[in-house]
Amino acid sequence: MEDIKTTHDIKILVNAFYDKVKTSEIGFFFNDLAQVNWKKHLPKMYIFWESVLFATVKFDGNPMGAHYPINEMAAMEKHHFETWLKLWKQTIDENFTGEIADSAKTKAENIANLMAYKMEMARKLS
Questions:
Q1: Number of folded domains in the chain?
Q2: Tens-place pLDDT, residues 55-102
Q3: How confident is the model over 49-54, as a mean pLDDT?
Q4: Is the residue at 109 inside a domain?
Q5: For residue 53, is it within any domain?
Q6: Secondary structure in 3-state letters for the chain
Q7: Has residue 1 been placed in a domain?
Q8: Which among 17, 36, 38, 57 could disulfide-bond with 91, CB atoms 3.0 to 4.6 Å apart, if both were Cys?
Q9: CATH code at 65?
């Protein structure tokens, strides 16, 4: 296996990851609550992860803002983000190895922890 090096690699990672997510215990957030349009969502995720991993400045979305309305419909709790992280790391380990792959896991840990905290705080304030 090789490291994550290209946009194509990110597409492979993101597609394989979301294939897992859709059928996992957190799939209902995407499929039922958010009713994600995958043809629109996946390209945004390619750009997001490319910006995170390759330090590009292409991503102009608001990940936190996109999650707050879903959190209001059903609590997005720490264990949900732990599942998300487990699936992310599993997908990386199945497809890639190397410095950027390791960085993708570390950065996802930081994202999951921050998201879990912010979603919990939002619930407490509402």
A1: 1
A2: 876 777 777 788 889 999 999 999 999 999 999 999 999 999 999 999
A3: 94
A4: yes
A5: yes
A6: CCCCCCHHHHHHHHHHHHHHHHCCCCHHHHHHHCCCCHHHHHHHHHHHHHHHHHCCCCCCCCHHHHHHHHHHHCCCCHHHHHHHHHHHHHHHHHHCCCHHHHHHHHHHHHHHHHHHHHHHHHHHHC
A7: no
A8: 17
A9: 1.10.490.10
Do the Cβ atoms of 105 and 89 come closer than 8 Å?
Answer: yes
Residue 122 pLDDT greater than 70, yes or no: yes
Instruction: Give the structural domain span for 72.
Output: 7-125
Asked whether residue 2 is assigned to any structural domain, the reply reads: no
Average pLDDT estimate for 4-20: 97
pLDDT at 119: 95
